[in-house]
Amino acid sequence: MSVSRPSVHPVEAPPLIDVAALRVRMKDVQGMPGTAGGLALRLCQLVFAGVSLAVMASTNDFPSVTAFCYLVAAVSLQCVWSLSLAIVDLYAISVRRSLRNCNVICFFTIGDGITSTLTFAAACASAGITVLIANDLNRCAVNHCKRFESATAMAFISWFVVSPSFLLNFWSLASR
């Protein structure tokens, strides 16, 4: 009796799959660090905060009001922060480097949160003093009301432009 013997064919084991490699990474959303949208947001933040600083510093009587001094300090910090991150974004774009490191995004998120809170608080305080001088005391003739209002408006716009940067960084950090 002839018994057929099964022939053994070597079968390779399937490759081990790395679970972390299976995660689908979304594309960089414009406005996040290291993208052209992020660089544009940083430059807008820098321009509006710089204009607010320049307009407020061009008046000779802003040091007499604490809220205006606070506005100058807050938008100065915003200018330094936005300029430094614009340089980082420009470098990341030029060398095609992704800034999706968790520690980097955490640093950007905390910095954006602090600077946006300070800028918003300073703009609100300055707006309150500006309304007090212009409407309640009717002392616009002896003060630089238009300059104070312009500087305060630029500070609000700077805060408005910081908000998407903060929210996108926070969203990226929270989705990890």
Tell me what you see in this structure.
The protein is mainly α and 176 residues long. It is 68% helix and 0% strand. The chain has five helices and no strands. α3 (66-94) packs antiparallel against α4 (102-136) and α3 (66-94) crosses α5 (145-174). The longest helix has 35 residues, at 102-136. The protein is rod-shaped. The model has no long low-confidence stretch (mean pLDDT 88).
Concise summary:
The chain has helices spanning 19-22, 36-57, 66-94, 102-136, 145-174.
Residue share in helices?
55-70%
Which radius of gyration do the C-alpha atoms yield? 27 Å
The separation of the N and C termini measures 66 Å
Low-confidence region ranges: none
Beta-strand percent range: under 5%
SS field, number of helical segments: 5
**Structural class computed from helices and strand pairing:** mainly alpha
Query: What do the pLDDT scores average to?
Result: 88
Net shape: rod-shaped
DSSP strand count: 0
Produce the secondary structure layout.
Layout: H1 19-22, H2 36-57, H3 66-94, H4 102-136, H5 145-174
Primary descriptors:
5 helices; 68% helix; 0% strand; rod-shaped; mainly alpha; 176 residues
